[in-house]
Design goal:
This protein is an alpha+beta fold and about 100 residues long. The protein has four helices and five strands. It has a five-stranded mixed β-sheet, with helices on one face. A hairpin with a 2-residue loop joins strand 1 and strand 2.
């Protein structure tokens, strides 16, 4: 799965959601995915802009997370996922990614 394919999948999922009041950025070694949850539906782009919470991980782990092969909590506990900023915002993401 490419970054563009993941971005499109996340846009599709976000189009069915409402605002969650924060912004989140997934930063990988192959680029970023930014979710602006301050609007309905949340906007998903590849813009590397500031966010309330930044989640850093390798692209392959990110693809597994989005593809449902890797659980976010497991990734965090095993060090595959690192969170900078407001951890509470990261917890809200479960509703966007499902």
């Amino acid at each position: 799965m490419t970054l563009q394919e993941i971005t499109e999948k996340m846009k599709e999922g976000a189009s069915k959601k409402t605002a969650f009041g924060n912004s989140v950025k997934f930063a990988t070694d192959q680029g970023v995915v930014h979710i602006d949850g301050n609007q309905t539906p949340p906007a998903v782009t590849n813009d590397d802009t500031a966010a309330d919470c930044t989640i850093k991980m390798d692209f392959s782990d990110f693809a597994d997370l989005i593809g449902g092969k890797l659980d976010g909590m497991t990734a965090f506990m095993t060090g595959k996922l690192k969170i900078e900023g407001d951890m509470g915002v990261a917890m809200k993401l479960q509703s966007i990614l499902r």
